[in-house]
Amino acid sequence: APAPAAAPAPAAAPAPEAASGPAWPMSVASPPAWAGGSADRLVVEVRDDGAGGAAIQPGGGLAGLRDRAEALDGALVLVSPPGGPATVRVEIPMSAA
């Protein structure tokens, strides 16, 4: 599939915050991250190798990431089972970017 067009600043905003780890306590020196998608969808995924158990708490960093994704008609998905790892996936339609 062809690479998606470069995402304008509003769509790209959640990616650096997710990768830098302020949204949840990460345990990894260099978090594995992936960005891609399609012509109509930007997808960013960050995974750590920590203990897991992260949750979206009102007023927390993950809630802020989710709110920004939803403001762009996108979504944030958190998978963080006890024992880890934690994965945050943000999907945003390019039409909203």
Task: Describe what is shown at a glance.
The protein is α+β, with helices and mostly antiparallel strands. The protein contains three helices and four strands; from the N terminus they run ααββαββ. Residues 1-5 and 19-24 have low confidence and may be disordered.
Report on the structure:
- With about 100 residues, this protein is α+β, with helices and mostly antiparallel strands.
- It is about 25% helix and about 25% strand.
- A hairpin with a 2-residue loop joins strand 1 (about 35-40) and strand 2 (about 40-45).
- The protein is flat.
- The relative contact order is 0.27.
Largest beta-sheet characterization: 4 strands, antiparallel
Order of SSEs: HHEEHEE
Strand content: 25-35%
Shape: flat
Terminal CA distance = 20 Å
- Structural class by secondary-structure content: alpha+beta
Mean pLDDT: 78
Structural Rg: 13 Å
Characteristics of this structure?
flat, alpha+beta, 3 helices, 97 residues
Secondary structure elements and their pairing?
Elements: H1 9-12, H2 14-20, E1 33-38, E2 41-47, H3 61-71, E3 75-79, E4 87-93
Antiparallel strand pairs: 1-2, 2-4, 3-4
